[in-house]
Amino acid sequence: MPSAQLPRAVFAMDPVHLPLLFPSPLVTRLQQSAEIDPALVVSDFTDPAASSALAGAEILITGWGCPRLDPDILDATPRLRTVLHAAGSVRSLVGEALWSRGVTVSSAVTGNAVPVAEYTLAMILLAGKDAFVHRERFRRTHAQPTPAETATTGNLGRRVGVIGASRVGRRLLELLRPFDFEVLLHDPYVDAAEAVELGAQLLSLEDLLRHSDIVSLHAPDIPETRHMLDRARLALIRDGGVLINTSRGALVDHSALTDELVSGRLHAVLDVTEPEPLPAGSPLYRLPNVFLTPHIAGSLGNELERLGRIVVEELERLADGLPLAHEVRHADLARVA
C-alpha cells in the first residue's frame, strides 16, 4: 500500500512508557499500517509543536499519561476516528463527547489482565502455604516451624473465592484449574452453568465470603461496587482468612479492613488501597499479617510489550478492513473496569 494511503496516527501518552510498550520491531510494524512519527509523543494537547500532527490524526495510540479526551482535546483532533489504548481501562480516558462523535475505541486490557492474574495466583499459593506468617515468625525466631505451627498450612482442598468474572477473574480461574483448590465464584452477570464451565461453583457474595479460605477481588470499580466489602461483609470471612485485592482499593471499606487487620483476625495481600498510597502513618505498613505492594500486579517492565503488541495487531486489523478484536463499547462501561 503506498504510504500516502496510510492513515495518520499519533502517540498520546507519557513519553517514558513508549520504549517499553513499542520497542523497535513493533514500531516498524506500526509504520507498515499507519503514518506515525515515533519521535512525537503527545502528553499536552495544547503544545503548538503537536498541533499539526493532531489536526491530521485519524488514530490516537494512547497510554498512561494521556489526558482525558474531552471536547477541547477532541477539537484539536477533528479527523479522529479510532483510539487504540495501550493500557487497561479506558474509563478515565474517554467521555461522552468521544462516544457521541462515533469514535471507535480499543483497549489492551486483556493483555494487562495476564500479569494481574499471574500475580494473584502466586499470592494465593503463598497464602495457602502461610508463607507470609512463617516468614515473619522465622525472622523473629530463626527456628523451623513445629508441626503444630504448620497444622493448618497447605493448598490441598483450599477454598478460593473469586469475586468477579472479569478479564482478570476469568484468566485467574484458568490458572487455578491445575491445582487442588475448591473454587467459588460470585458475579451477578454469570449463571450457575457458566460458572461450572469456568471451573467454579457460583455463590452469593455473602456465601462466598463465609465459605472461602482465601478471597480474591476482581470486580470493576463502578458506583455499585464501591465498598462492596464493608464492615458487615468483612466480618463474614472466617477467622484467619486471607483477602487479596489486585483490583481497586475502592471496593473495600479500608477503615473496616484496617480494624480487622489490626485485630489480627484477618490476613491481607493488598496491591491496591484507598487512598493510594496509604498515609505514611498507616498501620498496614507494619502489620505482620499484611503483605502490601505498590500497585505492581499490572503490566510492568518487559510485560508492557504485550500491550503494545495488542495495539499493533489491532492497527493491522484496521488496515486489512477487519473488525477490532478488543473493541470497547459505550454500553460496556456500565459494568466493566
Question: What features would you describe in this structure?
Answer:
By secondary structure, the protein is α/β, with parallel strands linked by helices. 35% of the residues lie in helices and 14% in strands. The chain has helices at 18-21, 24-33, 48-56, 71-75, 96-100, 109-128, 131-141, 167-176, 192-197, 205-211, 231-234, 254-263, 304-319, and strands spanning 9-12, 41-42, 59-62, 82-85, 104-107, 159-163, 182-186, 201-202, 214-217, 242-245, 267-270, 290-292, 327-328. The strands form two sheets. Strands 8-7-6-9-10-11-12 form a seven-stranded parallel beta sheet, sandwiched between helices. Helix 9 (192-197) links the parallel strand 7 (182-186) and strand 8. The two termini are 37 Å apart. The mean pLDDT is 95.
Spell out the blueprint of helices and strands:
Elements: E1 9-12, H1 18-21, H2 24-33, E2 41-42, H3 48-56, E3 59-62, H4 71-75, E4 82-85, H5 96-100, E5 104-107, H6 109-128, H7 131-141, E6 159-163, H8 167-176, E7 182-186, H9 192-197, E8 201-202, H10 205-211, E9 214-217, H11 231-234, E10 242-245, H12 254-263, E11 267-270, E12 290-292, H13 304-319, E13 327-328
Helix pairs in contact: 2-13, 6-8, 6-13
